[in-house]
Amino acid sequence: MKGPIARGTIRTTFILGLYTLVQAGTLLLVARMLGPYQFGGFAGVASLAVLLGALSPFGTNVILLGEVAKEPARRNQVLAYAIPTTLLCGSALLAIYLTVCMLMLRAAQVPATVLLAIGITEIWLQALFRLAVSEHQGLGRIARSQLLKTLPMVLRLVAAAGVFLVHPSNPLLAYGYVYPVASLLALVLAVRTFPSAWPAPHQWRLPNIGELRDNAGYAALSISASGPGELDKTLATKLLPLPVAGLYAVGTRIIAATTLPVSAMMESALPRLFREGNEQPKRTVQLLFWIFSTAFAYSLATAVVLWLAAPIFDWVFGTKFHGLDHTLRWLCVALPGMALRMSVGNVLMALGRPWIRVTLEVTGLMLLIIMATTLTVLFGEKGLPLGLACSEWLMAAIGWGYLRHHQSIHTRL
């Protein structure tokens, strides 16, 4: 890997590592506090909320970042329609979320008050919080925006620790009450760090047709990119017994955390890909070779290490999570495919093919639903990890095939 990209990867891995460390602490506390039965239901409905919440800003967070980066004075023009768009779109998505949970995910057995708390948090509060983070990024406050992203997770970690120490009779209900408080506090703190306040309600307006058209592509990218990492937890709640779904949810969180260096590598490589991607095809082919080779080699080695170390996680999460090692080993099959799919998706976006990425990821979601359902019927609880592995590897293979064809054409020109 080229020197600047390697150095950038190390720096970004450190920053993202802090975020992952906080996530790991929260996962450990919440999982041990709830046990596999309640955690399976909680993870399923929370993942659905996160998936829908990615669509709430309807791409306005990306527009805000770009406009503020060009001219900070434009922030009020974008926020004037970004805030009401997020609230209105979020309201519709919140209704969809509650309906799906009540009609299709009743087996999760999550109280209605907790469902509402999770929905408001992920679909409204976190969506508004992303606007604040995007504004900081647009203003060039990169370190502050990266630290700001960790704030809701830090506050959730504190909240989870408090509930864990108190030992309430119903920990899920108690955690559900503090869940939105953490995000609301993070949002207030984020907005108050700006030199000027957000536009008041009387300054809000609806977006025009042109603005909606500009936002639509980014909105599609947001939800399709979130889908592969969230939909499987919701499917687990529907397809598996809740205790097994809890084991699966913990296992996928562990697997996702190990892809951190791949994410860091892609963030470091993106500026060069944007700059040279279609202008210098021969150099881009070399860079893509290094990106995919590094991602595959790292993820394969990590999968082997996790396979061997799987029994340790049974001990870390406690006796209630007995069997986590077997689930984790089946998920190791998906890890290299997951790393390659993430790399392919970022490369497609950098090369100016966002709708190809959306098509690829939506196809992958359809494959995940079909294969997970079919393989779970055929093979029981190991069918869902196998379905995830199939969808990840197929997305990576299709995307890589498209890129190889695309780059061979550009190289000949």
TrEMBL record:
InterPro entries: Poly_Biosynth_Transport, Polysacc_synth. Keywords: Cell membrane, Membrane, Transmembrane, Transmembrane helix. Pfam families: Polysacc_synt. The keyword Transmembrane applies. The chain crosses the membrane at residues 12-35, 41-66, 78-105, 111-129, 150-166, 287-308, 328-351, 358-378, 384-403. It is a multi-pass membrane protein. It is found in: Cell membrane. PANTHER family: O-ANTIGEN TRANSPORTER-RELATED (PTHR30250:SF11), PST FAMILY PREDICTED COLANIC ACID TRANSPORTER (PTHR30250). This is Lipopolysaccharide biosynthesis protein. The lineage of its organism: Bacteria, Pseudomonadati, Pseudomonadota, Gammaproteobacteria, Lysobacterales.
